[in-house]
Design a protein that fits this description.
It is built from 9 helices and 5 strands, in the order ααβαβαβαβαβααα. The relative contact order is 0.13. By secondary structure, the chain is an alpha/beta fold. The termini are far apart. It has a 5-stranded parallel beta sheet, covered by helices on one side. Helices cover 38% and strands 18% of the residues. The protein is globular and about 45 Å long.
Amino acid sequence: HPSQKGNASCLSWGGSGGDFGKLWNHSKKKWKFIVHTLRDANLPLPRGKIVEFGPGMGLLDDFLNQKATEILMLDHTAAYIEQRATPLSARCRHLLFTRDNLMELLRSEAESCDWLLSLSVFYHVDDATAVAIISELGKLLKPGGYALIHGWNDSTPAMLRERGNLERLFARYPQYFINWDLVQSSLALDYREIH
């Protein structure tokens, strides 16, 4: 949640320090890289019905083709969305990521989404939580749908030891080193790695 010392954009991507212009430029560059990577891998660009986990300020609404998508945004707070300069377009639906909302989505919208996207979020959760989130949200995907998870933390165990101090205990968004082999093997029954 924003505080007097840091607003939503400050707590979001790229260490913007509350400067939306910096946040926008960093996010735009990141999205351009994702599009380039998908094209290089001969994968389609996200379209259809998309569920986005951790949308932050909802910038995906600004980057995706307006006519080709519907976006369901799940986040732990609405504070980021509230700080947008312009409201989300009508194609977007923002829900808090709560147990009740997730259970209702799984009941009413299972296998209805074409894409699951999460950008710069998963280095804030541990291995087991990452697997649980992807597994549960993956139930919203149609068979053959795509999951695009970007921004796994590439820090080393040495870097984590260096950060493993008293300050870490009170960090708003702690960072974790994901054990990709463990996560991949846990998800292998339901997901095929394409890229």
